[in-house]
């Protein structure tokens, strides 16, 4: 608690805590940025609003500064979440590398880094490196004394959302059932959310201006997965965390190709980024340059290499066939394609569009928008921060903030 504070968090009555939750959420979302706007939107007396705002300022959760607006007389005062109120730590794990980010409670990203470790080394090695780098990032940017309020980890696998662990992941040896959530909770002393990486991507895309829901994100990488954001803005994870694990749906072509899951003809085995690279003889295992494969594939496409173009279009058709079924099942308003293979936008996007419009009925596609990711590789980080913010500023999250402030 800040020096000079005259309100103890454990002395805040329940009814006041509910009111503080509402005011804090309005400030955090930008819905209200002044005492006057809070009073106007809530209908509360200005004296009541001032008491609530003063309490949040005393607890170190909110700050009030002079606005930049040019007006006559006394300058207006603007309310915002304090940069010292807490931090969000994010680890977006992919097969070959993990993106890290730290952000304040307003959602502003303070720093980002990449840890170049493969998931094949097991959870202990990777999580140790992630923990060490996140702590270093907090220290290097002067936030080591600021409490971490929430940690989010995205995994390229089906995830048991409640247990915080991967469930039988074909591309992550040693990770099945490993308590990722418990491990990070012990390291940071904060609530932890573990989710599927494509779910986080979908949440990130759903935060963008003009984004509409239901929204479906397809990630084409070493595996192929889907993330679903429903009409009310929540993620559909399914009963066991397997919702969206479309990479192991059987493709209609090349049914003899063996998948890493042990089955044959899986979509992942015939249409993933790794499958395309393998068929074209492009080495994807370069340690010194992890972007080598992407650049080499892009070069072949730019040079109109017929074999590369044919292979990519074949993959797009396979993906589009499965996506057409999802369009009928989910009836999304927006379909977003992401991942390294979809950076070749024209070839993949046109192929998936063609398959969807050919195979899905007009009712399911008449208002459907099919587009590439607006955020690219940042989508998972943006979605993770959005997910953490929801938890932090939920009623239970605010009660925890008031207790810990």
Structural account:
The strands form four sheets. This protein has a five-stranded mixed β-sheet with strand order 5-4-3-6-9, with helices on both faces. The protein has a four-stranded mixed β-sheet with strand order 11-10-12-13, with helices on both faces. A two-stranded antiparallel ribbon has the order 1-2. The protein is built from 14 helices and 13 strands. It folds into three domains: 9-81, Winged helix-like DNA-binding domain superfamily/Winged helix DNA-binding domain (Arc Repressor Mutant, subunit A, Orthogonal Bundle); 87-201 and 380-395, ATPase, nucleotide binding domain (Nucleotidyltransferase, domain 5, 2-Layer Sandwich), CATH 3.30.420.40; 209-373, Nucleotidyltransferase, domain 5. The radius of gyration is 23 Å and the shape is globular. It has 405 residues and is α/β, with parallel strands linked by helices. The chain has helices spanning 14-29, 35-42, 46-58, 123-140, 180-188, 197-206, 267-271, 273-279, 292-302, 306-330, 345-359, 362-365, 379-392, 395-404; strands at residues 62-66, 77-81, 87-93, 98-104, 109-115, 148-155, 159-160, 165-166, 192-196, 215-220, 224-229, 334-338, 369-372.
């Amino acid at each position: 608690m800040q020096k000079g504070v005259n309100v103890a968090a454990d002395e805040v009555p329940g009814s006041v805590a509910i009111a503080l939750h509402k005011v804090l959420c309005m400030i955090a979302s930008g819905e209200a940025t002044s005492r006057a706007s809070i009073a106007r939107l809530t209908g509360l007396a200005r004296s009541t609003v001032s008491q609530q705002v003063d309490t949040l300022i005393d607890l170190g959760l909110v700050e009030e500064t002079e606005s930049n607006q040019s007006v006559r007389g006394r300058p207006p005062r603007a309310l915002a979440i304090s940069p010292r109120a807490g931090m969000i730590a994010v680890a977006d794990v992919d097969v070959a590398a993990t993106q890290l980010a730290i952000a304040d409670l307003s959602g502003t990203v303070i720093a980002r880094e990449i840890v170049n470790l493969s998931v094949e080394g097991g959870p202990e090695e990777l999580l140790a490196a992630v923990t060490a780098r996140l702590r270093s990032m907090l220290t290097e940017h002067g936030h080591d004394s600021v409490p971490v309020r929430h940690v989010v980890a995205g995994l390229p696998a089906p995830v048991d959302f409640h247990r915080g662990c991967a469930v039988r992941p074909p591309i992550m040896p040693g990770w099945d059932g490993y308590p990722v959530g418990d491990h990070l909770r012990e390291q940071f002393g904060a609530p932890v959310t573990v989710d599927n990486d494509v779910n986080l991507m979908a949440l990130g895309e759903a935060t963008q201006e003009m984004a509409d829901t239901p929204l479906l994100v397809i990630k084409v990488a070493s595996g192929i997965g889907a993330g679903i954001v429903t009409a009310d803005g929540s993620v559909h994870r399914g009963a066991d965390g397997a919702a969206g694990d479309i990479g192991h749906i059987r493709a209609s072509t090349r049914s003899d190709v063996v998948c890493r899951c042990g089955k044959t003809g899986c979509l992942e085995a015939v249409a993933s980024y790794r499958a395309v690279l393998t068929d074209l003889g492009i080495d994807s295992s370069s340690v010194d340059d992890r972007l080598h494969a992407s650049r080499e594939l892009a070069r072949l496409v730019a040079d109109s290499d017929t074999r590369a173009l044919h292979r990519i279009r074949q993959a797009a058709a396979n993906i589009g066939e499965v996506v057409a079924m999802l369009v009928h099942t989910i009836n999304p308003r927006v379909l977003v394609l992401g991942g390294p293979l979809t950076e070749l936008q024209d070839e993949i996007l046109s192929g998936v569009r063609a398959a969807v419009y050919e195979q899905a009925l007009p009712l399911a596609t008449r208002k459907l928008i099919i587009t590439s990711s607006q955020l690219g590789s940042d989508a998972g980080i943006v979605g993770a921060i959005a997910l953490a913010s929801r938890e932090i500023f939920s009623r239970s999250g605010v009660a925890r903030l008031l207790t810990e402030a």
